[in-house]
Give the backbone structure.
Amino acid sequence: MEENNPAQLSALRAAQAIREGELTSEELVEACLTRIAEREEQIGAWKHLDEEFALRQAREADLAKREGKALGPLHGVPVGIKDVIDTADLPTENGSPLHAGRRPTEDAAVVSLLKSAGAVIMGKTVTTEFAVYHPGKTKNPHDPNRTPGGSSSGSAASVASNMVPAAVGSQTNGSTIRPASFCGVCGFKPTHGSISRYGMLPQSRPIDHVGLFARSVEDLAFLGDQVMVFDTRDPDMRPHAAPRLLDVAASEPPVAPRFAFVKTPVWKQAEEDAQAAFEELAERLGGEVVEEVELPEPFHSAIEWHQVILESNLARNFETEYERGKDQLSDLLRKMMERGKTYLAVDYTRAVEKVPVLNGLLGETFERFDAILTPPAPGQAPLGLGATGNPVFCTIWTLCGTPAVTLPLLEGADGMPIGVQLVGPKGDDARLLRTARWLESRLGG
Amino acid sequence: MEENNPAQLSALRAAQAIREGELTSEELVEACLTRIAEREEQIGAWKHLDEEFALRQAREADLAKREGKALGPLHGVPVGIKDVIDTADLPTENGSPLHAGRRPTEDAAVVSLLKSAGAVIMGKTVTTEFAVYHPGKTKNPHDPNRTPGGSSSGSAASVASNMVPAAVGSQTNGSTIRPASFCGVCGFKPTHGSISRYGMLPQSRPIDHVGLFARSVEDLAFLGDQVMVFDTRDPDMRPHAAPRLLDVAASEPPVAPRFAFVKTPVWKQAEEDAQAAFEELAERLGGEVVEEVELPEPFHSAIEWHQVILESNLARNFETEYERGKDQLSDLLRKMMERGKTYLAVDYTRAVEKVPVLNGLLGETFERFDAILTPPAPGQAPLGLGATGNPVFCTIWTLCGTPAVTLPLLEGADGMPIGVQLVGPKGDDARLLRTARWLESRLGG
């Protein structure tokens, strides 16, 4: 890819260039489309891409600028949207043949907000089946023999390969943080209930999150500022002040942050090279900055509680699909749903009630540390395209609904990227991104 | 009871008299305590009553007034609190020997709000076992051989017998509206999530409500204004503007209200005298004002969905009590819990998801009518003290979380009071009370 290709720009830099007249949205979208034309056959990041539709939005954005209209922060910048998030202009097929040809009449809240901010909706990115585990066509941009991770496979891969500067995904277990780590980009799962899920495929209300992908922490903050807006249509949202993520993330921490290195109860599932990379990272940052912290006993059951919630809700939310065509569901999903049908209401509600308990237990750690530092995945992207890798290192944080971010700071034995996951207390997304940016500038680039 | 006894005053009138120096709080509380001394042996409305504590609060209120301090709207007015709502100054035993001697360290949100408004916490009123069905000691003030209804038995009976002008209860099925109807007072179950349940015994989060008792609609509005305040500690609350219930309820409707007479799918369970009284009422109000409306088909399953939610949550919320001493639970509760343990998570979540669906279906009715007019109970308070009567006429509205109010406007075959229940759309509590006051002034007194 030649230097100074606009497709390489960050979303923030691209928006600035468009605003200042150094670049048109059409030039940017053209550059991204060219990049897609070069790489898509190998990577397969896109499910629905309508070049004309993307260019039309870009030309409208350029016209609005020439006419002196007010420009949104993302004016003219293309964003990819995971194909479980409704778009009125493009199909939304949820990664299943059972929803083939599905065409929403209304944009999801997050899409509306991006449009309001001036973004160009580039197209729909590949998801696994119903955002669960059965993979789509996408391959890892760093190695076509490896999974990009899932379920937001196309969103991660498209950002990693400079097809778009930013993309939206989702996370109900490890669907944003894991593919971001595998593809070597930044991923951000904000606090549960801080981005509206209205118009996003419901998988499991207590643990469904919208996720964001970009190539820098600054861009995650920039994107988050546009979409973390209260919406009564998401029953788990509470009004909150504008988070000012970018302002805070761009500022220097008042004192150097401290990290709790949390290996989690599943540390043994991490691969040797990843374990070594994390131990080394902790050493490199030094004892003043990083201290190992063990999660208290209840966290040992967190993965089980997450499973009860997730599978119960899969069984309920895809009931119609199961009845209509269970033979068109993957074996894996069918088995999860069949298990989900057997869970008892008391066990489900008990699991849901553990969420505030676990967050309470994290309080002490977050009093002493700015963020938890922990693996986003067991290691680098595994070989093979039949599965999307193990989400287990994300499960606790998804269950808790805490904000989590991953940065592509490490490398596996085969030179594949490995992310570093940082987790903060619920609601303090801005500070988490500030801490992440501190780490990024200390270790990155 | 002699005329001009302050114990007969409404809360609003009493507060005004205290504010204007016509009455001291001590005189009012003394009058209420005298009334209690006269009637308590027969009625048994109180679980915890500390005369000295009540009088001390009254004297402090009078001192504050003499010192020219700012006075809250309820300054010096005594209020009864159901014994499932935590009080730091008095025990809260939840109607079960398993919680005997329980002494909370903190006031429930609703108690704090009443205190902030200047109210005197008169004492704790009798509840059924864990606010479910197994009765406490309370008898109906109109006939000691009849149930006062439940679960807020003492709150209804104490207000009905002029022991306090107002009381707080709860409702998870028919626990406010039914005893209000049986005891001949006004009862109000505001919209789900409009009064904080922080510090109230959790029975079933999706359907637990705080309820209010008084002897006029005006007083319900006055009381509601003090306690319908956003509280982040109740996860089902959303911020809302102060409802200005009293202002709205005291105003005249711009046009005469229209009522949808809803017999509900359980009309056959209503007693003959009650059926006749309601038919007569509809006739008396006339076809311009009242029109019979049938609920659409999904409401036929509402009682089943309510049962799945309630019993699943009872099984979960009283798990510890069941393990610690199931022999100290009533047979009835034990059976509900044992059934509750068998429900599946998919059936539980499906039932919970029906709530917005049912409210959507009510939309059409509320476009055409100001309120639904419907029985609060199958008829007058039944004979016998071994049960608290049938809550089934409240179940649909509790499941939906719609505001409901009952007014003592009818009479049964034995001269016992029968209430008229009005139901409005979620969130429009003020208009419902205005409509109720219109009906009260048209038919009452």
